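Model it.
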Amino acid sequence: VSDAGFLAFCAALQPARGRVDFVNLTSNRLTSVSLTCIAAAMERWGQADDIGLPLSGLDVTYNDASVESVVAFRRAVATLSVKHPE
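Modeled.
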């Protein structure tokens, strides 16, 4: 997935809009922009009753993103997992 595809994915995912069974985002071109976007989306999802996303299956493989943005992404996943343990 490219940055453009990842940003489109973030825009399409909204809480309680549907059920996602598994998400695997692998890219050699994924940058800090994308990871910052998904982390911000997760903060919004944290306010929802049902996010429809299995957080245990959500992670990224990256080459171009900064370590800080990856850490922030994984922190957002962990925080949201606490709020939505299902």
